[in-house]
Amino acid sequence: MSLKSNIHSENLPKHIAIIMDGNGRWAKKKGFLRALGHENGTRSVKTTVECCVELGIENLTLYAFSTENWNRPKLEVKTLMQLLISSLKKEMNTLQKSSIRLNAIGNLEHLPAKVRKELLHVIDKTKGNSRMTLTLALSYGSRDELVNATKLICDKVKNNIISAENIDETLINQHLYTQNLPDVDLLIRTSGEKRISNFLLWQIAYAELYFTDELWPDFSKESLYKAIHSFQSRERRFGKTSEQLKS
Q1: 59, 69, 160, 168: which is the annotated catalytic residue?
Q2: Which of 16, 33, 68, 24 is nearest to 224 (CA)?
């Protein structure tokens, strides 16, 4: 029996974020080039997106390329960028058909011009879609995001647009890349690593964390159902006691 039947539609996470880890190790394990691992990883992306749409998940954010990933071998970076372009072109119709709005966060100016052009094209074409928001974190680092937000706020204080006394969580949220997204409810990381790796540090303050040993190319619909089922079995207290929640 599929784990899908155990999922309660009234208690779904509104925002799922995934650290898609293990493409290289998957390829190495099978004696393939790392590029083939990344290619197979795109299949898991497609499966996960389809599954989230079916379940009614409103927001899905995927850690596709970090600021640190620029330090990888040039050939691998080039392969990843080419794969991104081809995936955007290939999946455009699917995004439209399923009413998925594409979004991107990160230092997008660092992306190659061809990648940025295709990315912005798909973002523009899907901006009216409303079933789900799919966010790609590209050239993204949470510390970089927080530094950038701090600079923007400091600049506004300096120019008397806002006062320092008015700086609060809401204001900081408004200056993050994720300003139009809700906080993360469920963070999933594949490959057995138990780290956050500079991903959405502010936004996961009260997220439920789920780690699996599966490598990303092996992540299936059942894998996602299992993660959501785990999420639904937990008591989310947000600093309160169990007794307070019951009352």
Answers
A1: 69
A2: 16
List, in sequence order, every residue forming a beta bridge with 63; answer none if it has no partner: 19, 137
DSSP, collapsed to helix, strand or coil, labels residue 81 as: helix
User: Active-site residue 21, yes or no?
Assistant: yes
Q: Each residue of 169-228: pLDDT tens digit?
A: 999 999 999 999 999 999 999 999 999 999 999 999 999 999 999 999 999 999 999 999
Residue with tokens 């594409």: 102
Whole-model pTM over 0.85: yes
* Alpha helices for the chain (secondary structure H): 23-29, 34-55, 74-97, 113-125, 142-158, 169-173, 221-232, 242-246
Q: How far apart are CA 25 and CA 130, in angstroms?
A: 36
Catalytic, out of 6, 11, 21, 129: 21
